[in-house]
């Protein structure tokens, strides 16, 4: 009887299977024409570019086996992953690891207690700008909503020349900032946005539409005229369904929308994806660029909705209106407040640099995680990491509020590794010209705030966000517009370093990446003892 009872109990339990999903990447350099106009070099994997998206289920372990066939190091970051207890797999070059040397192999293990829409990209010398990037989807353990199919839109800006060539111009001595405008093309699912295949709808069905901006500089506005759209997920965060006419997606940002198909297949429709940058002068046919695709109910059916180019009511900073499904309240009280002002400055090298503090970010001689792990009590002193890291030390379980100010006529997206932050408030930056400030409304969250890992802050605006420092590690906070990041617009959060020392041991395979290249795995940011940074 007892055995029969146990069998019945087991049969009544939900079936939950987890597994290790092995993905093999041979990282290569290719020469391809991806935008329909320009043939140029790009990064790819297994001889392909664009790189196929990666899918796993919540609770699975992703084992990403990387072989580096380049003639330079590489590395991989899992954008939006908390990496709890495994901060050394964050993939940030000279922050949490040394690069994977040319010809070498390395395996990342990621077991996220997360779900939703993310992406994977290189965090080594901005290789992601040249194609080493792809969406990463973690399927929900329980339905976020009832829908019949899941459709992924990966959008990105694509420049006619490689990132290094662009930066040679921008960071040349004597060149003023901002530089002359560049006008990239837009890719959808890896190819010219006007050459994508139709998406197929069936009458009466519901669809989850995921939009992932894996680009480096410009925004996309995505809409599907003639259909009701509801935001149901922002960067892995379930939301209370929120009606929208479209979404405004900055570099690194992601949304899921629930869309209801029409009741009949009498007509086909058009979706719109507009590539634009507000900080670049408008130029007909170049900024903005309009891309249109077909929503096909039936072949040869007439098109009901024309292409729409007026999307001025779609604004990404309206995310403050969203509400989290879990209704987690505002983090308080604030125990650490930090103000970051975006500035540019011409330094002694006669080059314009960008910074959030007193120094532009640049790499150190020892990966910052090793400094945090090997310097004992000195790990709580920001000076030990070197001024170029702009290290911010936060204590375990601090409630950190960041006041980020765009004190110039430039938009940004900022990403915090290892966390999501709550969107608390928008308003005019303190130094905003009166003509700009009068058009910026102060908006403060009213109720449980939405959480996300990548924010948009518009020119002359401030944004306040909060996070709970409950994930010991070394985490970058940086502009996700790669030009700005390369210029130095980043800082490093060193979170609970003494807790980190107690609970983390870096796998030897990661140590060997450094040792094989003559890079120390101990010491301060300069590789010395104490505060000797010479």
Main beta sheet: 7 strands, mixed
Which residues form runs of ≥5 with pLDDT under 50? 1-15
Task: List how many beta strands DSSP finds.
Answer: 33
Residue share in helices?
Answer: under 10%
Strand order of the largest sheet: 11-10-9-13-18-15-16
Strand content: 35-45%
Distance between the termini: 75 Å
> Could you tell me the radius of gyration in angstroms?
23 Å
> Helix segment count?
7
Task: Report on this structure.
- The protein is mainly beta and 534 residues long.
- It is built from seven helices and 33 strands.
- The strands form seven sheets. It has a seven-stranded mixed beta sheet with strand order 11-10-9-13-18-15-16, with no helix packed on it. Strands 21, 25, 27, 28, 29 and 31 form a six-stranded mixed beta sheet that branches. Strands 12-20-19-14-17 form a five-stranded mixed beta sheet, with no helix packed on it.
- A hairpin with a 5-residue loop joins β1 and β2.
List the main descriptive attributes of the protein structure presented here.
534 residues, mainly beta, seven-stranded mixed sheet, six-stranded mixed sheet, globular, disordered N terminus
Summary?
10% of the residues lie in helices and 36% in strands. The protein is mainly β and 534 residues long.
Helix/strand layout:
Blueprint (H helix, E strand, L loop, with lengths): L1 H11 L7 E14 L5 E7 L8 E4 L3 E8 L8 E3 L25 E6 L5 E6 L11 E7 L9 E10 L4 H8 L14 E4 L2 E2 L6 E2 L5 E8 L5 E5 L5 E6 L2 E8 L2 E3 L4 E7 L8 E8 L12 E8 L39 E6 L1 E4 L5 E4 L12 H7 L17 E3 L4 E7 L6 E5 L4 E8 L5 H4 L5 E2 L6 E2 L1 E4 L3 E8 L4 E7 L2 H6 L2 E6 L1 H7 L4 H8 L19
Parallel strand pairs: 1-4, 3-8, 9-13, 12-20, 21-25, 24-33
Antiparallel strand pairs: 1-2, 4-6, 5-7, 7-8, 9-10, 10-11, 13-18, 14-17, 14-19, 15-16, 15-18, 19-20, 22-23, 25-31, 26-30, 26-32, 27-28, 27-29, 27-31, 32-33
